[in-house]
Amino acid sequence: MNGQEAWRTYFTQNGYQPLIKTDTDGIKSLTMEEFCTEDGAVPEELREIYLLCNESDIPCEMLLVLDIRESGKENDEIRALCREWDERILSFINFGSLPDREGQSKYPLKYNVMQILLSDTVTVRCAAAIAEEKSTDISRKLFVSVENGDVAESDRSMLPFYFEQLIQDRIAAGSESELAQILPVGGELMFLYEARVSEQTFTEKDLSAVREWLSYAED
Fold this sequence. Notes:
Helix content is 36%, strand content 18%. It folds into two domains: 3-156, 3-Layer(aba) Sandwich (Restriction Endonuclease), CATH 3.40.91; 168-218, no CATH class. Strand 5, helix 2 (75-95) and strand 6 (113-119) form a beta-alpha-beta unit. Helix 2 (75-95) runs parallel beside helix 4. By secondary structure, the chain is α/β, with parallel strands linked by helices. It has seven helices and eight strands, in the order αβββββαβααββααα. It has helices spanning 3-14, 75-95, 121-124, 127-134, 153-156, 168-182, 204-218; strands at residues 17-18, 21-22, 28-29, 46-53, 59-67, 113-119, 140-147, 150-151. The strands form two sheets. The chain has a six-stranded mixed β-sheet, with helices on both faces. A two-stranded antiparallel ribbon has the order 2-3. It starts with a helix and ends with a helix.
């Protein structure tokens, strides 16, 4: 499974909506003209646009996946590409509309659009890529390296949508059990659970009980 397919699986499972349509002949189409070429085609480097909506079905995040691995672009060209897509994004935010959501506010997307640029390992580390990732103009940028058709393992943790679901109930149960084993219980240590004011001090008996408990805890 290549990187793009892995992402599609993630999006399907987590509510991301792909906005680019592909027909049976493999021809891509997109109704958002701000992101298309002058003749209405999907730009070659644009692999996908994903939209995430909140529980009220209001768009709250947009990800543009751009593939620049085969472009051979260098520093100035990379900067120019990012600027070009920033201009497209700004035009969309100001004048465009979402497919099947005409008239719906795009304001929540204003600060939540990201360019994810699929790159080779050299491009990811180049000066232009590093500078663009620090830039907050119009959209955020993230360069990820792709090896053998998949996102490099070292870069996966940077992706905003790549994570493993945590089984909270198991973690909580295990944590509570471990905590119960190390906390002092009953007897002479009950004073540790009592509210105390700053003027109060521990008695020698209290301190002796704490030292004894700590010695058992270390064992």
